[in-house]
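Worked example 3 (structure in, sequence out).
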C-alpha cells in the first residue's frame, strides 16, 4: 500500500460512555422526571468531583460549557465591566470569547518560553495595572498552574485571577501546587477534553461566596429566591450531561491509566530525538488530552504536510494565537515574540486513550522522517 492509501491516524478520537453505561442514569432521570435546574444527578456529580479534587461540594460549580463557566467566573470574581482583562494570545479562541462575553476588553500578553504560560511576577511590574480588571491565566495544554501564585497576585494587586485549566481535569487533582485555591479554576468537560460530559464546564474555588455568586450568575441572577437579584443568564448543566459525567467517572481509573501509558511512551520517544521540543511540562506526572511537539526544523505547515502525506493527522490546536484572528485583531496587545515563535512551530500529534501500537509506530516513523 502506498503511503497515501494508508488508513488515516486521527489526531483525536473522543469516546464518551456508551448507551449501556448511561442506561441506569437515564432511567433515574425518567423516574425522577427532573431534567435540569440543579437536579439529583447534578448534585451527585458535584459531590463526586468534590471528592476527586479534595474540596467541599460547595466549592464546585457545574456549568453548561467551559466558555460560559469562564465568563461567569470573571463576573463572579468582580471584574470591573469595561476594564481590560490580560490574557495570553497563546490559547484557544474560547478564552478570549469568554472575556468579551464578560464585558471586558481582551488585552493579549506574551507567554514565558519556559512554561508557554503567563508569568504573574512579570505582570506585577506593568505600568497599566490600574486599567486591568482581571487576569486570565491559561494552562498550556494541561500544564500545572501554581494556584498560590495566582492568589498572591490578587492579594497584592486587588485584581482577580481566573485560571483557564480547560484540559487539566487530571493535573488539578494530582499536582499539589495546582490544587484549588481562591482564584477560580475552570476545567472544560467538552467531549474532546480529558473527562467529558458532551458539553460542560467545572469551576473550583475555595472561595465559597464566589462559587455561590457564579451559580447565581448562571441561573438568571436568581438563587434561593424567585426574584432576579443580580444580572445573570442561563448557564445551567442539564441532568443528561450530569449522567454522562457520572458514568464517565466510573471508568476514569482505566482511562487515566491508558492516557498515562501513552504519555510515557511519547515522552520516551521524544526524549530520544534531538531537534524536537515538547510542551515543557509534558510527562511530569499528570495526563491530558494532547501531545504537542515543536520540531526545530521547518515550519509547522511543512511538517504537517509531510505527516499528512503519511496519513497522520495533526492539529495546530492554538493556531497562530488569538491576536491574529479576524475578530480579535483590533484588540490591544503587547509585543508577542514568544507566541509568534510557538505559533510557527507547535502542533499536536495523534493522542487519545486507545491509539493502537501500530498507529503509534506510524507516528514515530513520521516524526523521524520530518527530523
Ligand atoms: C484553553 C481553552 N479554553 C477554553 C475552552 C472552552 O471550553 P468549552 O469548549 O468547554 O466551552 C477550551 C475548549 O476547547 C480551551 O481549550
Amino acid at each position: 500500500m502506498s503511503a497515501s492509501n494508508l488508513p488515516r491516524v486521527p489526531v483525536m478520537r473522543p469516546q464518551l460512555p456508551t448507551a449501556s453505561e448511561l442506561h441506569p442514569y437515564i432511567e433515574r432521570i425518567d423516574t425522577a422526571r427532573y431534567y435540569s435546574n440543579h437536579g439529583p444527578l447534578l448534585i451527585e456529580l458535584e459531590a463526586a468531583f468534590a471528592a476527586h479534587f479534595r474540596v467541599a461540594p460547595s466549592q464546585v460549580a457545574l456549568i453548561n460549557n467551559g466558555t460560559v463557566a469562564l465568563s461567569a467566573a470573571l463576573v463572579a470574581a468582580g471584574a470591573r465591566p469595561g476594564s481590560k482583562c490580560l490574557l495570553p494570545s497563546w490559547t484557544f479562541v474560547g478564552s478570549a470569547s469568554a472575556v468579551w462575553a464578560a464585558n471586558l476588553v481582551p488585552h493579549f500578553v506574551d507567554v514565558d518560553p519556559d512554561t508557554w504560560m503567563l508569568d504573574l511576577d512579570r505582570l506585577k511590574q506593568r505600568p497599566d495595572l490600574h486599567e486591568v480588571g482581571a487576569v486570565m491565566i491559561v494552562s498550556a495544554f494541561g500544564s500545572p498552574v501554581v494556584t498560590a501564585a495566582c492568589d498572591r497576585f490578587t492579594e497584592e494587586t486587588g485584581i482577580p485571577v481566573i485560571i483557564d485549566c480547560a484540559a487539566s481535569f487530571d493535573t488539578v487533582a494530582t499536582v499539589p501546587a495546582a490544587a484549588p485555591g481562591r482564584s477560580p479554576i475552570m476545567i472544560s468537560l467538552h467531549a474532546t477534553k480529558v473527562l467529558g460530559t458532551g458539553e460542560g464546564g467545572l469551576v473550583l474555588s475555595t472561595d465559597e461566596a464566589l462559587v455561590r455568586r457564579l451559580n447565581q450568575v448562571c441561573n438568571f441572577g436568581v438563587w434561593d429566591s424567585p426574584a432576579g437579584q443580580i444580572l445573570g443568564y442561563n448557564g445551567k448543566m442539564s441532568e443528561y450531561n450530569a449522567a454522562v459525567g457520572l458514568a464517565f467517572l466510573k471508568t476514569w481509573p482505566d482511562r487515566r491509566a491508558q492516557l498515562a501509558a501513552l504519555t510515557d511512551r511519547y515522552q520516551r520517544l521524544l526524549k530520544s530525538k534531538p531537534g524536537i521540543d515538547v510542551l515543557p511540562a509534558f510527562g511530569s506526572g499528570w495526563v491530558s488530552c494532547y501531545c504537542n511537539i515543536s520540531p526545530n526544523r521547518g515550519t509547522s505547515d511543512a511538517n504537517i504536510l509531510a505527516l499528512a502525506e503519511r496519513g497522520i493527522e495533526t492539529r495546530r490546536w492554538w493556531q497562530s494565537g488569538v491576536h491574529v484572528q479576524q475578530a480579535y485583531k483590533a484588540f490591544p496587545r503587547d509585543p508577542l515574540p514568544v507566541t509568534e515563535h510557538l505559533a510557527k512551530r507547535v502542533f499536536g500529534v495523534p493522542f487519545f486513550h486507545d491509539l493502537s501500537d501500530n498507529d503509534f509506530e506510524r507516528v514515530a516513523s513520521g516524526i523521524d522522517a520530518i527530523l
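Notes: The pocket of pyridoxal-5'-phosphate is lined by residues 65-67, 91-92, 94-95, 138, 164, 166, 188, 190, 201 (CB under 6 Å). The longest helix spans residues 239-271.
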